[in-house]
Each structure stands twice: as C-alpha cells, then as structure tokens.
Amino acid sequence: MKRRNAIALAAICLLAALAAAPIFAAPKNTLVFSMDSEIPALDPQKANAAPSFTVGNGLFEALVRTVDGKVTPGMAKEWTTSADGKTLTFKLRDAKWSDGKPVTAQDFEYGIKRLLDPKTASEYAFAAYYIKGAEDYNLGKNASADSVGVKATDAKTLVISLKNPTPYFIAYLGALSFMPARKDIVEKYGERYATSADTAVYNGPFILKEWKNEQSKKLVKNPNYWNKAAIKLEAVEILQISDPGTALAMYENGELDFVEVPTNLFKQYEAKANAYFNGADDFIKVQVQPNPAKPWLANQNFRKALGLAIDRESYCNIATKGLYVPATRYVLPIVMGLKKHYAEEYPLDYYGLKADTAKAKDYLKKALAELKIDSPDKISVEYLIQDNEECRLMAETLQQQVEKNLGIRFTIKLVPRKQRTAMEQSHDYDLVYGGWMPDYDDPMTYMEIWLGDSSQNNSGYASAAFDGYVKGALVEKDPKKRMDMLFNAEKTLLGDAVCIPLQIRRKVVLESKQLSGLSKPLIGAVYDYVYASVKR
C-alpha cells in the first residue's frame, strides 16, 4: 500500500472511531487514561512489567519515591549511609496502611525477603542481589531468610547491609519490587493476594477501589496517606482499550485526559506534541537453549547474520513512521556514564543504520556449513510478538527484510500480552520482541538482566566472559574501571548476538488543557500521575 493511501485510510478509520466511540463522562477531579492490555500483576513482589509499575506506583510507596528524576523521601523520612558505603539505615515516618494499621520497618523486611523467597518465584528477585546474602537465599544456597542483610531493628528503623558499595541502590529502592508487604494480608489471601481490589491493603497515595478484568480499574485517594495534602486528584480511572485508534478518538471526544498517538498517525499529530524518549529500547531476544528441531538458534554465526540483515533505518521509518529511532547498540545512550551520558563517553555503533547484506550472507554461509544445511530456505524461525496493529506492522516489516536478505523462512506468532509474557517466561519461543526500561540511571540496569543466573534471563544465554565483566563491575570500586567493564559487557553481549537491537522508543502524548503535573519518567513507570491534577 502506498504511503499516502495508508495515511488516508488511517484518517478514515479515525473518523469512524470518533463516531463510534462510546461516550464516557469523566467525574470532576478524576484523571482518566487508557492502557492497551490487562495489568499482568499488582503484587509488588511478583510484578514484572511497566504497566504494573505504572499502576502500582500510585497504590504503594517504598522507602523512597523518585519524582521527576530526583530521589525524595517516601516511607523513610531520612536515611544514612555508613562510611564504607555498605550499610544503609532508614528511619520511617509515621504512616498508615489503608486499613489504618501502622506501616512498620517489619513490613519492609518482610516484603524484601518475600521478593527473594524462592517460593515467591519473583522475576525481579535479582534486583535485591546487591543485598548481603540475598542471592544465595534466592537461589536456594542458604535456606534461612535470616541470612539476608535486611533487618528491622525496631518498628521505625530498617537496616540494609550491602555486599559492596552501590550508590545507585538508594534510587533502586523506589521500585515496585521493594514495596512493603503486610504478612497478615499476604498469608490471609495466599495466591489471591493483590489479584483484586479487596485482596490487598495500600500505603500509597491511592487505593484500588474497583478492578474489572479486561475493562477498567478505579483508584481513589487514600485518606491515610501521609502526604495526602499534596495529592490533588480524588480518583484515577484506567480504562483498558486495546485499539489505539479508539483511544485517540476518545481523547478527541474529551473522554480521556491524555493519550499516546499511534505510530501510524505520528506525522499528523507531530506538531501538537513533542516526541520524547521514554527510557525503553527494543530488541529481538533469541532463544539459544539447545533445540534439536532448530539448531540454528544456538549458532552464533546464524544470529550474527540475523542482526546484520536488518535495515534499522528503513524498519523504523516503515514500522513506526519515524517515531522510534534506530538502535545501533544495546544500552540506552542517554543513561548516565561517569560524568556525561554513557554514549558520549563510550560511543559505539555496533550495527549500522542500513543492513549489511554482504556480511550477513557471509555469516549465514558459515552457519549453514557448521550446521550441514545446504540451503537457507530450510531454516525457519518464529517471531513471538504482541497482537496489536503496531506490533503486527513491526513484525511484518522485519519479516520482509529478513526473508529478502537471508532467504530463510520467518513466521509471525501474534498473541495477547499476557500469553506472550507467559511463553517468554517458559522459554517457549524462537525469537521474541523484547524491550527494557531502566530501573535506575546506570548502564548496569541493562546488563544485569543477561547474567546467566538472572531470573530475567529466559533466553538460555550464559557467557563466562559476559558474567565476568558484569560481576566484576558489581564489586569494582574505581568508577572508570567499573564503567569500562560494563562497556566490555555490552560489546560481548552484542557479539554473541543473543540480543539484537532494533529501536529506541519515543512517545508522542497528547494532553488536555485541563491536565497538569503529569510526569513521564525515564525510569520505572510509563507515567507518573501521583501529583497530577485535572480541572473540569
């Protein structure tokens, strides 16, 4: 389809959606926005996706809260760091849960140890590995939770002992995984904990009032929140709308207070809102566990051929209409390095903007010889990706490039987000569309998830060289040597071609004139609405 015809069709579809969209009358002082799928989980210790972090950020509060990139006091009113940088002591403020019971240091101790408990099976347990004894406990090498360096010395004092000095760990403690948990509530509801509005208690700015699966969630202001005077919203309505065109139509009708512009309509709305980097980069993750039916997945030369066969500039222009930026490396360039952005201090264009078809075919030829396969068309790969129109276009664009440049068979498997996540976690894929948003402002946040023993690493990838660089950086005290190690880790990961960069995400968000104070953080949640306000 020609570009102008595609744009015309998109405009017609938008007009139709405007006419057909249901009218939702937003209450006063209520923020209304949409998400494109069901929230995977709201149990802080089990949540592992940006939508969960976005909702959970308003329901719970950790020791600290990051506001507009700055770490501010949360449940902890103050904290100190020992001279050797290994001991963090937090003093909690007077605060209450939504049921009126006090928030205690014991709730934080329990929550962090629950995150690490092997029975919880949290994919984010690795986030706490900086804590003394945490990794051994999580991996079953030490059966006692008492071995973990987290201790409530009294109801208002929490002491965390780190394996090594880690300055950015304070910021990390604001993540959803480190939220407190009430032992009595968790044990009361068991597997049903935080799966509905009435199976959890909340210590954040809002309470989850309603949870209608596949439809909506309603948050209301928490009267027990310690800083309730700073919260202007009375409620937050989060609607589940899978079709981005419908969401845009509802915004145009005044039914949503902000909306993401679909990539296919980016150019039409570009002048009305600024595109911004939201902290995420996207990549193809390759399943490299031995697979007798598809041995090429474990072949490094085949994976290198795949990475070189992609024309990233064309891919972004076609699949995202130029909204996303081609990724020629893995780590997000704008995270901090030593004193400047990481990319300024450690420049790298591992992949070019254009496909290198000659080199890709050379690597494919080597792979075919190693695999004793006489023709590329005997190789097939399946690409797992979420079933929405934007992802469909991305997958089809990739399919066309790979099949043309390598001559292999490239099929697409479109599934709902929840199913894609489940398949990814169970290693049930050849290639999967992956992405990562930083949990803190440091390249390590992109590296640690690829460690051979990381709970986030479901690719089967295990590299002694890569692990050596990353684990060396975890204990290295010299900042320059540490950053050098992380750069070497990135180059090793790219060379092993288990993670094939695609694009750096940008978003274009339209906001109503009634809305103010909405934050779009680089780290964690997609949107931070806690201090927003709406005047109707």
How does this model look, in words?
The protein has 536 residues and is an alpha+beta fold. The protein has 2 domains: 31-234 and 512-534, Alpha-Beta Complex (Dipeptide-binding Protein, domain 1); 277-507, Dipeptide-binding Protein, Domain 3 (Dipeptide-binding Protein, domain 3, Roll), CATH 3.10.105.10. The chain has 17 helices and 19 strands. The chain has helices spanning 3-20, 50-59, 105-116, 134-138, 169-172, 183-189, 244-252, 266-269, 300-308, 312-319, 342-345, 357-371, 389-406, 417-425, 444-447, 464-475, 479-496; strands at residues 30-35, 64-67, 70-73, 76-81, 87-92, 150-154, 157-161, 206-212, 216-221, 235-240, 258-260, 275-286, 325-326, 380-386, 409-415, 431-436, 499-511, 515-516, 533-534. The strands form 5 sheets. Strands 11, 12, 13, 14, 15, 16 and 17 form a 7-stranded mixed sheet that branches. The protein has a 4-stranded mixed sheet with strand order 1-10-9-8, with helices on one face. A 4-stranded antiparallel sheet has the order 4-5-7-6, with helices on one face. Strand 8 (206-212) and strand 9 (216-221) form a beta hairpin. Helix 10 (312-319) runs antiparallel to helix 13 (389-406). The chain is globular. The protein starts with a helix and ends with a strand. Mean pLDDT is 92; it is low at 1-24.
